[in-house]
């Protein structure tokens, strides 16, 4: 019989890992959709109506799947982590309730108008709807990350014994809800969402551009795909460098506030100074495969690199080792490799952005087949990097569910049996595999169908039939 | 800043009885969820009776713009219970572990099925997703009703007689709401049978309420006396009057009046549950509202937040429902 603690942790991990894909898509698409809606409403180039309608379809399906998978997470705090919910509920429940009332309500109601109501409402209300949906998705992340950042960096509370159990009491709401960690997390997450969607757009449009220009197959709506590629590249040029620069600050903040997690990210067992930054490391003895900084190790490291990054420029800075903490270390290999893969991808995205930007500058954006292939291969890597980043954040803080206050193993529902936990875990494996397959299928269908056809540029059409109307302003 | 925090920690804002208000609010939110998402659940149940393609499309188009917003009330219910009474939230949800995941599974099915149904035109695909839509729409209110019944009598078990009768009661109630909603939003595309289904559902609902009260008389600690209190009797009498009014209104085509009667029935039912439960909030442990409520500072903050946000939410729903006022045609899709 499986341990209910382990089953609950696997289940929460699985349901979060699948769920986060959909908010990344909707939060990342939001700024693009607001822009497309604005350009479409102002009139002129009909490609913006195509852009709005095409990407709204993908937004809508992402939102629906995000809704049904998101409710699961809210319920799991109660079903599987009842002890955590009882201990931290006074501080942790509030942000979740406000997320529902302030953000989710806003996005879900105006989504109805945004998706189905173009013909029913005025341009002004339609624009307001796109803004409300977009702002709602970003506000959602505010409250979720306020809750999460408090678990990483708990403040503004005191522990009070109630019925023989220590319970968190809110003392200072400003300190509790606006931890320094929140700012780092929010910028990192929102920028990652836009970057991931930009990569997705670039990957999809690169395929059609390649097909048309390099391969020579006449492709319908090629102007639409070219426009998509250019818009995605602009977004990538802004977000990719910002992500790495801000990520560096964020890592330094983790070094200062969650030393155990940072030690796991760098796999430092004993407190050392002048710690090298391993870019690549493999154990020479396979029994130590899960321990990237095992003694028998072949690795390529930058001398003093990790110390330099941690301290912001001092290669001799000391990093506290995992062996000096009273609690067991988090699964070091998972954290170490996830962090490296995420950072590596972050740099690759910068290279892609500059490569594309340079080709655009030289006028060869639509001719560079290798660039197109690189973009196609990277279309889903942004989402992969988000997943890995969350693995670093959440696995890296183990064994704590609330850093230094409550261990994950102590947060699980006391009455939960292994059988119950196993039944639902097995159910989720099946159901979520199905949901992912269906989502992929639907998005692939939408892409294959291509953008909807819209009336051509108004001025030219009117010229053919006679000068009946004044052309719209371009 | 500190002085403001001190003031908020000293006592409830305006001296209000906040724990009781939050108890009422939690049930009001649950009632709102049951009423609004009842349109969608009921539409799903009625979908099962429709054979014609055009009628089925009309049902899906009618709920399309609304269901996601309606479902958020369940999220807010969970959030409000978590924020104001965390130990109740934790105890209830973990006690009825499999039931909660049953609800989630039904909601997943109900949410995904219409999206999938519209993706392809082939018959097998649509038959499969149509059935999933019906199954999710019927199971979700049934299991939610069972959850509420188990909560009220404080049983640790998930499958109980009380749960079954309350489940049937809530399911019938969603069909009542769904029939009125579909008459309003898709009347031209639907056969007259929808009216008969609505009238039949309201009769079934009133019978189920009687059955539920009968079972409750044997399960509640206060027994029959609890049911014979004035507020409960008044609410039951009002339900009978509203049920008759609903049937008359639906027959006459006064669909908005029928919907209003359905709203009265739904809030009446949640009020009965709340009245029977108070002053306890978790009968399984015997915890009362004042035992389980969070301390003054977070309660004040939540109250200020809710006081500011709930009117805004009402505005969002007013904008949404007025943008789609009147019948919705099957062509209105993205």
TrEMBL record, chain A:
<keyword id="KW-0479">Metal-binding</keyword>
<feature type="transmembrane region" description="Helical">
    <location>
        <begin position="54"/>
        <end position="73"/>
    </location>
</feature>
<feature type="region of interest" description="Disordered">
    <location>
        <begin position="452"/>
        <end position="474"/>
    </location>
</feature>
<dbReference type="GO" id="GO:0070069">
    <property type="term" value="C:cytochrome complex"/>
</dbReference>
<feature type="transmembrane region" description="Helical">
    <location>
        <begin position="12"/>
        <end position="34"/>
    </location>
</feature>
<feature type="transmembrane region" description="Helical">
    <location>
        <begin position="125"/>
        <end position="146"/>
    </location>
</feature>
<keyword id="KW-0472">Membrane</keyword>
<dbReference type="GO" id="GO:0009055">
    <property type="term" value="F:electron transfer activity"/>
</dbReference>
<keyword id="KW-0408">Iron</keyword>
<dbReference type="GO" id="GO:0005886">
    <property type="term" value="C:plasma membrane"/>
</dbReference>
<keyword id="KW-1133">Transmembrane helix</keyword>
<keyword id="KW-1003">Cell membrane</keyword>
<keyword id="KW-0812">Transmembrane</keyword>
<feature type="transmembrane region" description="Helical">
    <location>
        <begin position="231"/>
        <end position="251"/>
    </location>
</feature>
<protein>
    <submittedName>
        <fullName>Cytochrome bd quinol oxidase subunit 1 apoprotein</fullName>
    </submittedName>
</protein>
<dbReference type="InterPro" id="IPR002585">
    <property type="entry name" value="Cyt-d_ubiquinol_oxidase_su_1"/>
</dbReference>
<feature type="transmembrane region" description="Helical">
    <location>
        <begin position="93"/>
        <end position="116"/>
    </location>
</feature>
<feature type="transmembrane region" description="Helical">
    <location>
        <begin position="192"/>
        <end position="210"/>
    </location>
</feature>
<feature type="transmembrane region" description="Helical">
    <location>
        <begin position="370"/>
        <end position="392"/>
    </location>
</feature>
<dbReference type="Pfam" id="PF01654">
    <property type="entry name" value="Cyt_bd_oxida_I"/>
</dbReference>
<keyword id="KW-0813">Transport</keyword>
<dbReference type="GO" id="GO:0019646">
    <property type="term" value="P:aerobic electron transport chain"/>
</dbReference>
TrEMBL record, chain B:
<dbReference type="GO" id="GO:0005886">
    <property type="term" value="C:plasma membrane"/>
</dbReference>
<dbReference type="GO" id="GO:0009055">
    <property type="term" value="F:electron transfer activity"/>
</dbReference>
<keyword id="KW-0472">Membrane</keyword>
<dbReference type="InterPro" id="IPR003317">
    <property type="entry name" value="Cyt-d_oxidase_su2"/>
</dbReference>
<feature type="transmembrane region" description="Helical">
    <location>
        <begin position="159"/>
        <end position="182"/>
    </location>
</feature>
<dbReference type="GO" id="GO:0019646">
    <property type="term" value="P:aerobic electron transport chain"/>
</dbReference>
<keyword id="KW-1133">Transmembrane helix</keyword>
<dbReference type="GO" id="GO:0016682">
    <property type="term" value="F:oxidoreductase activity, acting on diphenols and related substances as donors, oxygen as acceptor"/>
</dbReference>
<dbReference type="Pfam" id="PF02322">
    <property type="entry name" value="Cyt_bd_oxida_II"/>
</dbReference>
<feature type="transmembrane region" description="Helical">
    <location>
        <begin position="301"/>
        <end position="324"/>
    </location>
</feature>
<feature type="transmembrane region" description="Helical">
    <location>
        <begin position="21"/>
        <end position="50"/>
    </location>
</feature>
<feature type="transmembrane region" description="Helical">
    <location>
        <begin position="256"/>
        <end position="281"/>
    </location>
</feature>
<feature type="transmembrane region" description="Helical">
    <location>
        <begin position="194"/>
        <end position="216"/>
    </location>
</feature>
<feature type="transmembrane region" description="Helical">
    <location>
        <begin position="71"/>
        <end position="90"/>
    </location>
</feature>
<keyword id="KW-1003">Cell membrane</keyword>
<dbReference type="GO" id="GO:0070069">
    <property type="term" value="C:cytochrome complex"/>
</dbReference>
<keyword id="KW-0812">Transmembrane</keyword>
<protein>
    <submittedName>
        <fullName>Cytochrome bd quinol oxidase subunit 2 apoprotein</fullName>
    </submittedName>
</protein>
<feature type="transmembrane region" description="Helical">
    <location>
        <begin position="228"/>
        <end position="249"/>
    </location>
</feature>
<feature type="transmembrane region" description="Helical">
    <location>
        <begin position="133"/>
        <end position="153"/>
    </location>
</feature>
């Amino acid at each position: 019989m499986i341990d209910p603690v382990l089953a609950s942790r696997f289940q929460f991990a699985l349901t979060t890992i699948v769920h986060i894909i959909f908010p990344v898509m909707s939060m990342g698409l939001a700024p693009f959709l607001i822009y497309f809606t604005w350009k479409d409403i102002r009139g002129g180039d009909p490609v913006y109506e195509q852009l709005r309608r095409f990407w709204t379809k993908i937004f809508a399906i992402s939102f629906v799947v995000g809704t049904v998978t998101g409710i699961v997470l809210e319920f799991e705090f109660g079903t599987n982590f009842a002890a955590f919910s009882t201990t931290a509920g006074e501080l942790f429940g509030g942000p979740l309730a406000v997320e529902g009332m302030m953000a989710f309500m806003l996005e879900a109601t105006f989504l109805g108008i945004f998706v189905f109501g173009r013909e029913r409402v005025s341009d002004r209300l339609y624009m307001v709807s796109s803004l409300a949906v977009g702002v709602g998705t970003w506000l959602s992340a505010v409250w979720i990350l306020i809750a999460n950042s408090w678990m990483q960096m708990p403040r503004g509370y005191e522990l009070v014994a109630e019925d023989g159990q220590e319970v968190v009491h809110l003392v200072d709401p400003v300190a509790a809800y606006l931890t320094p960690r929140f700012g780092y997390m929010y910028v990192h997450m929102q920028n990652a969402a836009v970057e991931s969607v930009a990569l997705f757009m670039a990957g999809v449009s690169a395929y059609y551009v390649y097909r048309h220009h390099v391969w020579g197959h006449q492709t319908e709506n090629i102007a639409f795909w070219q426009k998509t590629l250019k818009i995605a590249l602009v977004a990538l040029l802004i977000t990719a460098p910002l992500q790495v620069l801000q990520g560096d600050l964020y890592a330094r903040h983790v070094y200062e506030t969650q030393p155990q997690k940072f030690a796991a990210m760098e796999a430092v067992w004993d407190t050392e100074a002048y710690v090298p930054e391993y870019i690549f490391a493999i154990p020479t003895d396979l029994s130590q495969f899960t321990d990237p900084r095992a003694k028998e190790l072949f690795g390529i490291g930058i001398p003093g690199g990790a110390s330099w990054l941690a301290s912001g420029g001092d290669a001799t800075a000391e990093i506290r080792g995992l062996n000096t903490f009273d609690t067991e270390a988090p699964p070091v290999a998972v954290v170490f490799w996830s962090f490296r893969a995420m950072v590596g991808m972050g740099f690759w995205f910068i290279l892609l952005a500059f490569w594309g930007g340079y080709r655009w500058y030289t006028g060869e954006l639509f001719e560079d087949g290798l660039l197109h292939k690189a973009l196609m291969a990277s279309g889903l890597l942004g989402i992969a990097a988000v997943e890995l980043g969350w693995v670093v954040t959440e696995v890296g803080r183990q064994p704590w569910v609330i850093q230094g206050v409550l261990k994950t193993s102590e947060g699980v529902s006391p009455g939960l049996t292994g059988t119950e936990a196993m039944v639902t875990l097995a159910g989720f494996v099946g159901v979520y595999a199905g949901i992912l397959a269906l989502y992929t299928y639907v998005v692939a269908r939408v892409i294959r169908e291509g953008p909807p056809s819209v009336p051509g540029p108004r001025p030219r059409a009117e010229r053919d039939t006679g000068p009946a109307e004044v052309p719209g302003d371009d | 800043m500190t002085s403001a925090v001190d003031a908020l920690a000293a006592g409830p804002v305006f001296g209000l009885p906040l724990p009781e208000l939050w108890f009422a609010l939690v049930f009001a939110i649950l009632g709102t969820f049951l009423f609004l998402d009842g349109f969608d659940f009921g539409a799903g149940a009625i979908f099962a009776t429709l054979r014609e393609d055009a009628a089925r499309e009309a049902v899906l188009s009618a709920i399309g713009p609304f269901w996601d917003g309606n479902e958020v009330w369940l999220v807010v219910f969970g959030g409000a219970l978590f924020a104001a009474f965390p130990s109740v939230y934790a105890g209830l949800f973990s006690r009825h572990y499999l039931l909660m995941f049953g609800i989630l599974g039904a909601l997943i099915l109900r949410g995904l099925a219409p999206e999938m149904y519209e993706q392809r035109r082939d018959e097998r695909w649509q038959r499969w997703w149509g059935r999933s839509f019906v199954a999710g729409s019927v199971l979700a209110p049934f299991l939610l009703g069972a959850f509420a019944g188990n909560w009220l009598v404080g049983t640790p078990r998930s499958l109980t007689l009380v749960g079954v009768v309350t489940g049937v009661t809530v399911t019938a109630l969603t069909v009542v709401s769904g029939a009125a909603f579909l008459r309003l939003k898709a009347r031209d595309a639907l056969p007259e049978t929808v009216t008969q289904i609505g009238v039949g559902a309201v009769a079934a609902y009133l019978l189920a309420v009687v059955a539920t009260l009968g079972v409750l008389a044997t399960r509640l600690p206060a027994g029959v006396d609890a049911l014979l209190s004035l507020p409960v009797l008044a609410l039951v009498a009002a339900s009978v009057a509203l049920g008759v009014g609903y049937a008359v209104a639906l027959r006459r085509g006064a669909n908005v009046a029928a919907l209003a009667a359905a709203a009265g029935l739904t809030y009446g039912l949640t009020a009965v549950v709340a009245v029977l439960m108070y002053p306890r909030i978790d009968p399984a442990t015997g915890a009362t509202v004042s035992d389980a409520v969070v301390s003054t500072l977070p309660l004040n903050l939540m109250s200020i937040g809710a006081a500011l946000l709930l009117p805004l939410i009402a505005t969002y729903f007013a904008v949404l429902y007025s943008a789609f006022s009147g019948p919705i045609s099957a062509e209105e899709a993205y």
